[in-house]
Write a structure and sequence with these properties.
The structure is a homodimer. With about 475 residues, chain A is α+β, with helices and mostly antiparallel strands. Among the domains of chain A are: about 100 residues, Uridine Diphospho-n-acetylenolpyruvylglucosamine Reductase, domain 2 (2-Layer Sandwich); about 110 residues, 2-Layer Sandwich (Alpha-Beta Plaits), CATH 3.30.70; about 70 residues, Alpha-Beta Plaits (2-Layer Sandwich). Chains A and B meet through strand 9, helix 7, strand 11, helix 8 and helix 10 of A and strand 9, helix 7, strand 11, helix 8 and helix 10 of B. Chains A, B: Keywords: FAD, Flavoprotein, Oxidoreductase. Chains A, B: Belongs to the FAD-binding oxidoreductase/transferase type 4 family.
Chain lengths: ~475, ~475
C-alpha cells in the first residue's frame, strides 16, 4: 500500500549521529544496535505495508531508560517509534521516517499475579501467551487472544487494543487494562488508572491510551484485571454446504440469545485451503463455523451447545462435530490457525483485511465480497470472528502486477463496509496500512480534533510520525 | 463539604442578560426558565455538596439547539453546566458559578433497538429504567444498574460512568457505550465511536468522554451495546453473625472462582436500620450478603449458588435463604434499596462515601472503618458492591455542629483507601464533592496533564467550571 508520492522524509544523518552519541551515555553497549541485520529486522512487521528501516534500535530495560530515550530524541529532533514483537498487521510499529526504533521486548517480567485481587502487573515485553499460561496455572483467566498470542507482547496488545476470537464473549484488551505506567512523548512518566476493578477518579486516560497505536506514548507497566478461569469449555465444528448458510447461522445463534465465547467462520476458499492439513472435512462441506462455549457447570454447557447445533441445523448445517477431549479441541483450533499460512500457499501474495459490520449485515457483506472478487477476477477468502461482525477478508493475488487491482478491491471493500454501518478496522489498527481510508469513516471535524490531540500530547510530532491520519499534502 | 475560601465567583448579571436574550432567539419560550422554583430545583443534586442556583435553565430538544446554546454561552462569557435527572452523588451537575443550566431531559427518545445487531440508540434524557424495560421486552439486556435507575438518565450515566450492583459481573456504563454524538464545549458536533461491537479506528474518544463528568462536552446521542437477556436468575440472602465474617466470605467466594452477578454487603448498622421494614432478619444476624447468579442453564446456576452457600457457611454464615420466585427476589432487593432511606431515618444527617479497595482488602477496610467511627464517636454504616471492592461507607451525624468531625472522618477514610491501593470514587465521580481529595490519589504531573487536557477541549473554561480538580489558589 506504499504510495511513492506520500513517501515520508527520513531524518538527516547528522541528527542520528548526535542522538546516538547521547543514547550511548544512557544505555549500555548491548542496548543499542546499528548493524544491518538488526535494522532490517526492525524495518517490517506482519502487515504488507512496506520496508522502513530505523537508523538505530534501542532496547531499554526500565522506565527511566525509556524516558531518557524519549527526551534525547526530542532534544535532537530525531523521530522515535516504539515496537514490541513486530507482529502488527497495520504497520503501526514501522519507523516511517527512520530514526530510533524503541523496542520494549527486554522489559518482559510478570511483576505480580494476585489471586485474591484478580489482577496482574506486567511489563510491556511480556509475551501474551506467557501471561495466559501463568494466570491459568493459578485458576485465573486473561481472555484476549490475538492470533499471534504465542509471540506478540502485551505492550503491543495495549498499543493496538488487540482482540481475538474470544472477544465475542469477553471483549478486547482495553476491557482488561485498569492501570498503566505511561511514558508521555516528552519523556514524562505518569501513572494512570488504578489497581482496583472499579474506579472513576479523573479522566479515563487509560481508555484514551489503549489503542493509541504508539502515537501518544508507551506503556512501561500494565495492570490487568483477570477473571476466574471457566471450569469447562466445549468446542464444536459445524459444517455447512455454503458460506451464506454459515453466515445466516451465526446471526441466528446470536439472535436466539446464545453467547458462545467464539464463533469463527471459515469460508469455502479457506476451507479448501486447509482441508486435509491435519483435518479432513466431510464431503459437500462448503463452509464451517468453530463454536466454543464455556462456563462453570457442565450440564448448562451441553444444553447451550446442543441448542446452538439445532439452530445451525435449521440454517442448513449438515453436521456438528463436538470435540470429545482436549486433543480433539486442539485439532479443531489447529484448523483455524492454519488458515492464514494455508492461504499464503495458494497464491504468491495475500493481503488481509480486518473489517467489522453490524452483526445483522454479516451475510450481506460476505455475499458482496464474493461478488466483488468475481467481478475483479481476484480470489477472496473470508474468515474470522464472525460472531462480532469482525471478518478477515483476504485477497490472494499473483504478484506486483496485480497490485493496482488489489488496491481497488481493498478500497471497494472498505467503502462497502462503511456503507453497511461498519468500521475499517476491528482489531488490527489503522497505522500506516489504512491511514488514507480513515476519512471514509470519520468526518473532517473528527479527524482534525484527533490531529490536534496528537499535537497536544506530542508537540514535536517526532513520536511514531505520520501514522493513523491521512497524510496532508506536503 | 463547601469551603468558603474556595467559594466560586458567580458570573456578572449583565452577561446573563445578554446570553438570555441570545438564547431566546434560538429557543421557544417554554424552553427557557428563570422562575425561582426552577432555579431552586436545579441548584442541587443528591450529593451533600451545597446549593448553587443557575441564573437560567434551558431545555434543548435537539442537537442543533445544544450546539447553539454552547456557542452563545462561549460568545457571551457565561458559564454553562449540563444536567440530567440531578440524581448525581458528587455535585457534578451543580452550576457552581451560576450561568446556564443545560438540561438534557427533554431529549428522551429511544431512537432504535436492534435485536439482530444487539444495539440501541438513545437520546441522553432517556431514563435508564425505561431502556432496561424496553430491551428486556425483546429478550435483550442492558446490565448497568445504578441505584437510581428508576429516575436517572442515560446521559447522566455516560457523564459519570455509572456503575451498580451488576458491575461485578457485567462492568459499568462505559463497557456498553460504543458510539456517541458529542457536542464539544465550543458547540462543534462530532460523531465518535461506531455502531459495531468491535472497532479500533482512531483514538478512543468514547473512552475519554464517558466519565468526563460534563466537563469535556455532552452526549446528544448514545449508541449502546446490549447482550442477550440471561434466561435464569437466582437470588439469595446469606446471613452472618458479623460483618467481618461476611467480608471474608465475599473474598472467599471470588477466590474460589465464582462470579455471581451481584455480591452486595449489608453491615450491622445497615442491617439493624432495615430489619423489620418488610423483612425480618433471623435472630443473631449481624450482617448479610445478597448474592445473585445468572445464566442460561438452570442446573448450572443451582450448582453455583449451592457452592457459594457452602463457601459462606465455611466462613461462618448461619443461613442462606434462596428466593423461590420473583416476588421473593423482589423482597430481597427491597431490603437493599431501603438501606439508604432507612439510614437517613436513624440520624438527622448522612454523608455517603464511594470508595474502592482491591478485593483482598475488603475485610481490612471494613475493620478500619469501624475502628475509625468508634474513635471519632461517629456512626459508620458500610454497605454496597463488596464483590468488586466498591463500598458505600456512610457517616451518620446529628447536624452542622458535627460537620468538622465528619469532614475529618471523610478525609481519614479517603487517605486510608488510597493507602490500601484503592481509589476515592468507584462510580459517583469526583465532581465538586471530592475535588480536593483527588490529589491524594493522583500525582501532580497527572493532575496537571488533565487540567491541560480540559483546557485543550474547553479553552474558555466556561463548561461546568471548577469541577474534578483541586481549586488552584485564586
Amino acid at each position: 500500500m506504499s504510495d511513492v508520492s506520500a513517501r515520508p522524509v527520513r531524518v538527516e544523518p547528522e541528527r542520528v549521529e548526535r542522538v546516538c552519541e547521547a543514547l550511548s551515555r544512557v544505555l549500555s553497549a548491548g542496548q543499542l544496535k546499528r548493524d544491518e541485520a538488526t535494522l532490517a529486522a526492525y524495518a517490517r512487521d506482519e502487515s504488507d505495508s512496506g520496508v522502513f528501516p530505523p537508523d538505530l534500535v534501542v532496547f531499554p530495560e526500565d522506565t527511566a531508560q525509556v524516558s531518557a530515550i524519549f527526551k534525547a530524541c526530542v532534544a535532537h529532533g530525531v523521530p522515535y517509534t516504539p515496537c514490541g514483537a513486530r507482529t502488527g498487521k497495520s504497520g503501526g510499529s514501522l519507523p516511517l521516517c527512520g530514526g530510533v526504533a524503541v523496542s520494549l521486548e527486554r522489559m518482559n517480567r510478570i511483576r505480580s499475579i494476585s489471586v485474591e485481587d484478580l489482577t496482574a502487573v506486567v511489563e510491556p515485553g511480556v509475551v501474551t501467551g506467557d501471561l495466559m499460561k501463568a494466570v491459568e496455572a493459578v485458576g485465573l483467566f486473561y481472555p484476549p487472544d490475538p492470533n499471534s498470542w504465542e509471540s506478540c507482547t502485551l505492550g503491543g496488545n495495549v498499543a493496538e487494543n488487540a482482540g481475538g476470537p474470544r472477544a465475542l464473549k469477553y471483549g478486547v484488551t482495553r476491557d482488561y487494562v485498569i492501570g498503566l505506567e505511561w511514558v508521555l512523548p516528552d519523556g514524562e512518566v505518569v501513572k494512570v488508572g488504578r489497581r482496583t476493578i472499579k474506579g472513576v477518579a479523573g479522566y479515563d486516560l487509560v481508555g484514551l491510551f489503549v489503542g493509541s497505536e504508539g502515537t501518544l506514548g508507551v506503556a512501561t507497566e500494565i495492570t490487568l484485571q483477570l477473571i476466574p478461569l471457566p471450569r469447562k469449555v466445549l468446542t464444536a465444528l459445524v459444517v455447512f454446504p455454503s458460506v451464506l448458510d454459515a453466515a445466516r447461522a451465526v446471526s441466528a445463534v446470536l439472535a436466539a440469545g446464545l453467547l458462545p465465547r467464539c464463533l469463527e467462520l471459515i469460508d469455502d476458499v479457506a476451507l479448501r485451503a486447509v482441508d486435509g492439513r491435519g483435518f479432513q472435512f466431510p464431503p459437500g462441506a462448503g463452509a464451517a463455523v468453530i463454536a466454543e462455549v464455556d462456563g462453570h457447570g457442565a450440564e448448562g454447557l451441553f444444553e447451550e451447545l446442543s441448542r446452538l447445533g439445532d439452530i445451525c441445523a435449521q440454517q442448513g448445517a449438515s453436521q456438528t462435530l463436538v470435540a470429545q477431549d482436549d486433543s480433539q479441541r486442539e485439532k479443531l483450533w489447529a484448523v483455524r490457525r492454519v488458515i492464514s499460512p494455508a492461504l499464503r500457499a495458494l497464491k504468491p501474495r495475500k493481503v488481509s483485511e480486518d473489517i467489522v459490520v453490524p452483526r445483522s449485515r454479516i451475510p450481506e457483506v460476505i455475499e458482496r465480497l464474493k461478488a466483488m472478487g468475481e467481478e475483479l477476477g481476484l480470489t477472496v477468502a473470508t474468515y474470522g470472528h464472525a460472531g462480532d461482525g469482525n471478518l478477515h477478508a483476504n485477497i490472494l493475488y499473483e504478484g506486483p502486477h496485480q497490485r493496482p487491482l488489489v488496491d481497488e478491491a481493498l478500497r471497494r471493500m472498505l467503502v462497502m463496509t462503511v456503507e453497511l454501518g461498519g468500521t475499517i478496522t476491528g482489531e488490527h489498527g489503522v497505522g500506516l496500512a489504512k491511514r488514507e481510508f480513515l476519512a471514509l469513516e470519520q468526518q473532517p471535524a473528527l479527524l482534525e480534533l484527533q490531529r490536534r490531540l496528537k499535537a497536544f500530547f506530542d508537540p514535536s510530532g517526532l513520536l511514531n510520525p505520520e501514522k493513523i491520519f491521512p497524510v496532508l499534502k506536503r
